[in-house]
């Protein structure tokens, strides 16, 4: 964390050094502090393409300038949702009527003049496992029908305060515990690239929706990869922030979350553009007093001495790396090198031990605090998937539990010291091609193979509480492949800068997807 306070204006200025998309975000952000009345001397400029294809940065700027109304923006996204969602099943709660009412109100507000939020009139989606006032927090479980949210969760509240308009709630697996998005309440969500591969989980509905053009930003959350895995599967960008960056709380919950579950979980955005992820992070991370773990850390820290050294993580010998994944990692490294970074392949601190610590802590905490109640109300598919994860964990008594939580501190320290030399780590999301949509129900062994043998570099980062961005790099055999950029605590800016450098050369893969979808 930086030692001195960084103002909002300076944050935007520093965060935009490495990417044209971020420069657009900066311009849009600065405009929000001015009066909303249109500039008569300047003719409003309308971005190219259909409105639903625009970035969040472009959409916000177009609405603010009067090039398009909030109603037009929302209607375009609702039309896109009606066209593609019946096949995908990504949005499971349609908020069209409510969204249009909010859009009309947003246009009236702009016409009156005054300050507008960073996402004024911009259509977004919210994952159906956080509180949305007046609606059940199903979290993929039919038995949760009576958990009616008395208030919006902090992330929803912050989105609305910034002027964003929620057009729908997205699908998640039961209790958001699987890496595959399917449940008895809403059914299976398909990947828009290919129905034979998973859209990921647990924010699979969010990833599929934003990739397909439903909403400019999708909210999700991540306790073991649930933002980064769907971003990889659906070919979009994301940031899993540092623990404490974005406030979290569900008033509908019947009990408080246990400590380590809270410390390893993070709310965050998925979007097609890295610039949109950066903008959404600023919006979502505003203070909410209901989260005692929220940290008022600046969004941008001191710039490391250049050239910034990037560690291309060596893959453990027991992980069988697919040639396409290896090629994508090398391609990402080349993009960074050409952007001025210095990339070296090095061994990162004990990624396997870190993963096992994550698995042991989250599994044992769940067994003690939640398992009995969850198994009573969940499907056989959930039981299979959970059983596979549980089998990989060591059973801990109280003394062993305390040792495991203490070991977490040592792992964090080792990584923090590593970042002193290498401020950014380039790592895989998975080392294998994206699996099928229900692959975690095949067997307990297959579940372990996926989480331990394939996505080890994703889940391990949660126990460290570190920020990790994912950005798509390439399409192989018609399927997107992304890479992960990991940075030190509260240095989301470094991870996103590196992601933006890759995106600048790799392009936005969603454009290829839309050509295929029609």
How would you describe this protein?
The protein contains 19 helices and eleven strands. The chain has helices at residues 8-15, 20-32, 56-65, 70-88, 96-112, 154-161, 204-212, 228-234, 259-264, 274-284, 323-338, 351-369, 371-377, 380-392, 398-421, 444-454, 456-464, 492-506, 510-517; strands spanning 91-94, 123-127, 165-170, 217-222, 237-240, 266-271, 309-313, 342-346, 424-428, 468-476, 479-487. It has an eleven-stranded mixed β-sheet with strand order 1-3-2-4-6-5-10-11-9-7-8, sandwiched between helices. The model is unreliable at 1-41 (pLDDT under 50).
Topology overview:
Blueprint: H1 8-15, H2 20-32, H3 56-65, H4 70-88, E1 91-94, H5 96-112, E2 123-127, H6 154-161, E3 165-170, H7 204-212, E4 217-222, H8 228-234, E5 237-240, H9 259-264, E6 266-271, H10 274-284, E7 309-313, H11 323-338, E8 342-346, H12 351-369, H13 371-377, H14 380-392, H15 398-421, E9 424-428, H16 444-454, H17 456-464, E10 468-476, E11 479-487, H18 492-506, H19 510-517
Parallel strand pairs: 2-3, 2-4, 7-8, 7-9
Antiparallel strand pairs: 1-3, 4-6, 5-6, 5-10, 9-11, 10-11
Helix pairs in contact: 1-2, 2-3, 2-10, 4-5, 7-8, 10-18, 11-18, 12-15, 12-17, 14-16
Dominant shape: globular
* Separation, N- and C-terminal Cα atoms: 45 Å
Given as residue ranges, the uncertain stretches (5+ residues, pLDDT < 50) are: 1-41
Helix content: 40-55%
Radius of gyration over all CA atoms, rounded = 21 Å
Mean pLDDT over the residues:
92
What's the total count of β strands?
Answer: 11
Please state how the strands of the largest beta sheet are arranged side by side. 1-3-2-4-6-5-10-11-9-7-8
């Amino acid at each position: 964390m930086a030692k001195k306070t960084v103002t909002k204006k300076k944050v935007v200025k520093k965060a935009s050094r490495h990417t044209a998309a971020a420069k657009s975000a900066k311009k849009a952000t600065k405009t929000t502090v001015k009066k909303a009345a249109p500039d008569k001397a300047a003719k409003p400029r309308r971005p190219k393409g259909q409105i639903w294809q625009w970035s969040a940065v472009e959409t916000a700027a177009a609405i603010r300038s009067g090039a398009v109304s909030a109603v037009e923006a929302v209607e375009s996204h609702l039309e896109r949702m009606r066209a593609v969602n019946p096949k995908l099943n990504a949005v499971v709660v349609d908020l069209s009527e409510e969204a249009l009412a909010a859009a009309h109100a947003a246009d009236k507000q702009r016409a009156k003049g005054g300050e507008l939020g960073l996402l004024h009139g911009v259509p977004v989606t919210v994952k159906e496992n956080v509180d949305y006032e007046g609606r059940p927090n199903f979290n993929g479980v039919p038995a949760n029908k009576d958990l009616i949210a008395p208030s919006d969760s902090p992330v929803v509240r912050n989105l609305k305060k910034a002027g964003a308009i929620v057009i729908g709630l997205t699908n998640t697996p039961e209790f958001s515990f699987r890496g595959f998005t399917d449940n008895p309440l809403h059914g299976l969500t398909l990947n828009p690239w290919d129905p034979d591969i998973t859209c990921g989980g647990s924010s699979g509905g969010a990833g599929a929706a934003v990739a397909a053009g439903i909403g400019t930003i999708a909210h999700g959350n991540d306790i073991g990869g649930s933002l980064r895995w769907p971003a990889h599967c659906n070919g979009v960008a994301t940031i899993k922030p540092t623990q404490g960056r974005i406030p979290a709380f569900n008033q509908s919950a019947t009990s408080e979350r246990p400590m380590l579950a809270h410390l390893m979980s993070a709310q965050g955005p998925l979007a097609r553009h890295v610039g949109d992820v950066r903008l959404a992070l600023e919006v979502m991370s505003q203070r909410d007093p209901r989260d005692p773990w929220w940290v008022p850390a600046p969004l941008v820290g001191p710039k490391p001495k250049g050239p910034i050294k990037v560690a291309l993580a060596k893959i453990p010998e027991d992980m069988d790396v697919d040639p396409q994944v290896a090629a994508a990692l090398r391609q990402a490294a080349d993009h960074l090198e050409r952007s001025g970074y210095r990339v070296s392949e090095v061994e990162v601190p004990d990624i396997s031990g870190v993963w096992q610590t994550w698995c042991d802590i989250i599994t044992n905490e769940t067994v003690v605090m939640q398992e009995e109640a969850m198994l009573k109300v969940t499907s056989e598919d959930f039981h299979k998937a959970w059983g596979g994860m549980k089998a990989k964990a060591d059973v801990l008594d109280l003394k062993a539990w305390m040792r495991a939580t203490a070991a977490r501190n040592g792992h964090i320290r080792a990584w923090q010291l590593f970042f002193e030399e290498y401020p950014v780590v380039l790592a895989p999301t998975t080392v294998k091609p994206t699996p099928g949509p229900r692959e975690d129900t095949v067997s307990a062994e297959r579940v372990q193979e996926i989480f331990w043998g394939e996505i080890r570099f994703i889940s391990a980062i949660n126990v460290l509480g570190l920020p990790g961005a994912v950005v798509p790099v390439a399409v192989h055999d018609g399927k997107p492949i992304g890479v992960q950029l990991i940075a030190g605590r509260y240095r989301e800016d470094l991870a996103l800068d590196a992601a933006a450098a890759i995106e600048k050369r790799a392009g936005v893969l969603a454009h290829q997807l839309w050509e295929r979808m029609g």
